[in-house]
Amino acid sequence: MRATLMYAPGDVRVENVAAPRIEQPTDAIVRMVRTCVCGSDLHPYHSMDPTDGPARMGHELLGVVEEVGSGVSKVSKGDLVITSFHYQDATCVTCVEDFACACPAGGYLTECQAEVSRVPLADGTLTVMPVGEDQTEILPSLLTLADVYGTGHHAAVMAGVREGDTVAVVGDGAVGLLAVLSAKKLGAEQIILMGRHRSRTDLGREFGATEVVVERGEEGIQKVLELTGGRGVRAVLEAVGHMPAYEQSVGIVRPGGVISRVGVPQYSEAPVGFTSLFGRNIELTGSPAPVHEYVAELLPGIMDGTDDPGRVFDRTVGLEDVAEGYRAMDERESLKVLVTP
Amino acid sequence: MRATLMYAPGDVRVENVAAPRIEQPTDAIVRMVRTCVCGSDLHPYHSMDPTDGPARMGHELLGVVEEVGSGVSKVSKGDLVITSFHYQDATCVTCVEDFACACPAGGYLTECQAEVSRVPLADGTLTVMPVGEDQTEILPSLLTLADVYGTGHHAAVMAGVREGDTVAVVGDGAVGLLAVLSAKKLGAEQIILMGRHRSRTDLGREFGATEVVVERGEEGIQKVLELTGGRGVRAVLEAVGHMPAYEQSVGIVRPGGVISRVGVPQYSEAPVGFTSLFGRNIELTGSPAPVHEYVAELLPGIMDGTDDPGRVFDRTVGLEDVAEGYRAMDERESLKVLVTP
Questions:
Q1: Average pLDDT, whole number, for chain A?
Q2: Contact between chains at B269 and A271 (C-beta distance less than 8 A)
Q3: A222-235 confidence digits (pLDDT tens)
Q4: Is the pLDDT of residue A31 over 90?
Q5: Start and end residues for every CATH 3.40.50.720 domain found in chain A
Q6: Range list for CATH 3.90.180.10 in chain B
Q7: Mean pLDDT along residues A48-77
Q8: Partner-chain residue, chosen from B98, B261, B279, that has the shortest CB–CB distance to A254
Q9: A68-72 LR contacts (CB < 8 Å, sep 24+)
Q10: What is the pLDDT of residue B53?
Q11: Mean pLDDT of the region A63-73
Q12: Per the CB < 8 Å rule, is B257 touching A286?
């Protein structure tokens, strides 16, 4: 079968690989209906060590179950299912009480940009969708449940966004835009989107952003302070992961506020001392999102047409052309690339 | 009048200074009944730049109001009052909605180890105590409301400590021990106190610690993991402020847990990346405590005899001997030193 392999920075190929098969009784084999390229796939696309390659790619998958192991009970052959980008059993004490992305039996999916994927711990990782694969219009929105929508939602949930809130979203990628949508759904009154790509920030406005700040650094901070009567925002949803985004977050959050990060940090240490966080009682939170847990909450709005998170996809390529999808996202020609079989 | 001055590391003197007087209509002049030496006073005692001295010292004060400015309405001459270590108006939007210790009109008290002090913004900073200065037995516990009790309580509150919770307290100073007491009052079931001073940890056990871990670093981390079935604790209350305490906190907190800092950080940057906080969904919170806001909650337990936070004072000196108090605390002969007129 055909699968995406990254050999080195900028070098993505689609090649023949052995078809996956059931290895554990908790596995499912899923035929891809839709997958996509993630902003986080661009990190290795920039800086991967070629000795780590060729590496299978992809962690977002909407597909049809072809086969399940003997220990799988919640999904069956023929079901249209969505994955979470992290697999987990969803039954252990870590999953139930602590944090699913730390499930001792779990891990991150890494092979979904392919014709067929093996999904471990299928009962805790897959959710059956209430439609068939022929309902093509809704498929992009369903696919966002595998990562970007749940991740944007997680940013807002961890920040405790509430009715009447004042929020800033740092980053106009797919996660940032869906953090805007989530903040809006949770009742935020003022939502300032910090980003400089006009087509993206326009979509952000449609998702609920009340203001857009294109400036960065100190200038961007001053702009946000102006827009909030000098107070800054109560909640920052940081959807980038680079240090300048962190520093910007510290600059725009008000005393007693919260910085909620869902951009995977590309740094190990950051300012957390008296002048940055401690002295002003700023909370730092956020993590990879336990998106499997959010499907039940987010799916109804998609099904009834209220929410259309699939609008973050602005280009579609076939699996054979996935390299073109990486290039387009890398060069900011495309916000997020949908991949069809 | 007599006041404490720090000239250089290890050089504390009591000298004559000009008596304070009302400078702003919101000021009060308070005659000291009890004050004390704080763990945070030991930071300059170790590392103060002598060119910054001589510096007035002290931010915890129980005293009797001698005079109030024309704009003060909540306290009157003759009242026994407790300060918060930070002064604030308690009426602005920052105080009411965000964080009192960021009050634009506020600041930190710095001159309370003296016969008489000027307290700015008296209405937002002083709370009248329901006893007279002759009720000497209860005075030490009341004095803890100015800082250490409210600060320990803040650590537990910001960590969201709740019924049945699993908590570790890092540090067996006065704040750490009162964080134990606060965690106990909020319903924590398991409270692991990390500290190595037997007399202090014994008091910690009386305040509610269920276990004591004397080991530090990796050994201490392993011990806490053992005591929690390998999971770590849901909430760490960090009452030290040095980097090893931060690292220890990261090591003992479970996925999805929280590190709540009230030890003033003696560092600017710290690990917050994927392997320390982000990947395991660890929240970092904490700050200087808005202790004025906690008086109403904590006072009843002191008045009815349920709580005796004043037990953290294990030595008393007169104001003229305050240098001896610094020395005793610095050499760990004393946990916390009470100062009488």
A1: 97
A2: yes
A3: 999 999 999 999 99
A4: yes
A5: 152-286
A6: 2-147+290-340
A7: 96
A8: B98
A9: A68/A22, A68/A27, A68/A28, A68/A29, A68/A122, A69/A22, A69/A24, A69/A25, A69/A26, A69/A27, A69/A28, A69/A122, A70/A25, A71/A24, A71/A25, A71/A26, A71/A123, A72/A25, A72/A26, A72/A27, A72/A28, A72/A122, A72/A123
A10: 82
A11: 98
A12: no
Check: CB of residue B282 under 8 Å from CB of residue A284.
no
Extract the runs of DSSP E, i.e. beta strands, from chain A.
2-8, 11-16, 28-36, 55-56, 61-68, 80-82, 86-87, 107-108, 116-119, 127-128, 166-170, 190-194, 211-213, 233-238, 253-261, 269-271, 283-286, 315-318, 337-340
Q: List residues of B whose CB lies inside 8 A of any A CB.
A: 93-94, 97-99, 101-102, 158, 231, 234, 254-257, 261, 264-265, 267-288
- State what percent of residues in chain B have pLDDT above 90: 98
Q: Taking the CB of residue B190, how many other CB atoms lie within 10 A of it?
A: 17
3-state SS, residue A237 = strand
For chain A, helix, strand, coil in percent to 5 are: 35, 25, 40
CB contact under 8 A, B272 and A274: no
The span from the CA of A164 to the CA of A184, in Å, is: 10
Task: Name every chain A residue with its beta carbon within 8 A of the beta carbon of B98.
Answer: 231, 234, 254-257
Counting every residue written for chain B, the total comes to 341
Please give the backbone phi and psi of residue A34, each rounded to the nearest 5 degrees, phi first.
Answer: -145, 140
Quick: pLDDT tens for B11-68: 999 999 999 999 999 999 999 999 999 998 998 999 899 898 899 999 999 999 999 9
Can you identify the CATH homologous superfamily of domain A152-286?
A: NAD(P)-binding Rossmann-like Domain (3.40.50.720)
pLDDT score of A53 more than 90 = no
In B, which residues are within 8 Å of A105 by CB distance? Answer: none
- Asked: is A2-147+290-340 a CATH 3.40.50.300 domain? The reply is no
Write a three-state SS string for chain B: CEEEEEEECCEEEEEECCCCCCCCCCCEEEEEEEEECCHHHHHHHHHCCHHHCCEECCCCEEEEEEEECCCCCCCCCCCEEECCCEECCCCCHHHHHHCHHHCCCCEECCCCCECEEEECCHHHHCEECCCCCCCHHHHHHHHHHHCHHHHHHHHHHHCCCCCCCEEEEECCCHHHHHHHHHHHHCCCCEEEEECCCHHHHHHHHHHCCCEEECCCHHHHHHHHHHHCCCCCEEEEEECCCCHHHHHHHHHHEEEEEEEEECCCCCCCEEECCCCCCHHHCCEEEECCCCHHHHHHHHHHHHHCCCCCHHHHCCEEEEHHHHHHHHHHHHCCCCCCEEEEC
Residue A206 pLDDT level (bands cut at 50, 70, 90): very high
Residues above pLDDT 90, as percent of chain A: 98
pLDDT higher than threshold 90 for residue A43? no
Question: b/e map of A210-223 (b: 16 or more CB within 10 Å)?
Answer: bbbbeebeeebbeb
Radius of gyration of chain A from its Cα atoms, rounded to whole angstroms: 20
Tokens of B26: 């919101």
What is the block-wise mean pLDDT of chain B (341 residues), using blocks of 10 residues? 97 98 98 96 91 94 98 98 98 97 97 98 98 97 98 98 98 97 98 97 98 97 98 97 97 98 96 98 98 98 98 98 97 96 97
- Other CB atoms within 10 Å distance of the CB of residue B25: 11
Please name which of A274, A317, A332 lies closest in space to residue A35, comparing C-alpha atoms. A317
